[in-house]
Amino acid sequence: MARYENQVLIVGGGPVGLTLAYRLETFGIPCVLFEAESEPTDDLRASTFHPPTLDMLDEYGLAQPLVDQGLKAPHWQIRIHETGELALFDLSVLKNDTAHPYRLQCEQFRLCRLLAERLQGAAHADLRFGWKVESVEQGDDGVRVRGVDPQGRVFEETGRFLVGADGARSIVRKSMALDFEGKTYPETTVLATTTHRFEEQLPGLSNVNYVWREGGTFSLLRLRDKWRCSLYPDEGETIEQVMEPERIERKLQAIAPKDGPYDIVDLRPYRVHMRIVSDYRAGRFILAGDAAHVNSPSGGMGMNGGVHDAFNLSATLKEIWAGASVDLLDRYTRQRRPIAADEILVQADANRARMQERSWDKRREMFADLQKVASDPKLSYERLLKSSMIVGLRRAAEIA
């Protein structure tokens, strides 16, 4: 009989994998995290933390350091660019439901850095950055990973469970032979990050803005010292064309004209998907975050949902370590998959569809409804409970 180490193996050193490792460390559960990159990367991926995520992180003193490095967004808006009309959603109405009644605009890598720093010299968590996992397998009693370490040497590690927190192209998910059902949206998003101060030109901006313009759409998300602009190709414009500097410049100048060119500190295109795995578990292999579900970034729920996965899964593993059946992992799927499918993916898809609408008649109809909701205390409260992911977490807690 093969011998397996009494530990959890985690593939992926982003916010989901590191959150899971940190929670396991606090529970005294041994774990080894493998990440192919040599250190937490400073890439500009997710940048929105929702109220309940901050509540979770606050349990470990992690929320305030993020607040110190980020920018609070006490409200967000949907806006018509040419007229400046807006529907404003004020998160202060959630003050009795969360200790953090705001969105926090802060890059996800800052959470990764905090977690990695906290885990330096940890008693139970072993972080292995620069270790690339190339194959995974499982038996009745444990799991095994093989790969290459930073010196190019082949390594092998075993454990009781393997968690795939390794993103949309997850090697763990692929080994599980599960359906990853969904679709890829036709448009490509271009994320342009600039130091230009849009708040000085566009009156009434929030720190989070989703904007309709004539013939298209864009979003403006503010960080402490920069703005992130989501841009889209015009009709008939290829992704190769839209990435040309003069075309990016033209799109930004159309948002806020200025003398001289924009200072662009980061520019990247990406395709957006909506997919979810058929089961979060296959034997001793478990999925979390983008490895299990991917969605449109509209609404900022992807990374938050992954952190919520990590909190739920770590609590489940704690019970198993205390003697509960391995089959308790099925509860993790029951509690997290429906929330991802019905709350995260559905809302993100609706947000994306609304902002991609091109008919001004339909836009006007939608906008009138949004203004009605935003101005009605009861309707606004209900909408914000849902869009801030509080409803989903409460629903998950009711599932046995």
Provide the β-strand percentage band: 25-35%
Question: What is the subunit arrangement here?
Answer: single chain
Percentage of residues in helical conformation: 25-40%
* Arrangement of strands in the largest sheet: 6-5-14-15-16-13-17-20
**Would you state the CATH class of the domain at 8-74 and 101-181 and 274-356?**
Alpha Beta
CATH homolog superfamily of the domain at 8-74 and 101-181 and 274-356:
FAD/NAD(P)-binding domain
Number of strands: 20
Shape: globular
Tell me which CATH architecture of the domain at 8-74 and 101-181 and 274-356 applies here: 3-Layer(bba) Sandwich
- Class of secondary structure makeup: alpha+beta
Summed up, the helix count is 12
Q: What profile does the largest beta sheet have? A: 8 strands, mixed
- Contiguous runs where pLDDT drops below 50 for at least 5 residues: none
Gyration radius, in Å:
22 Å
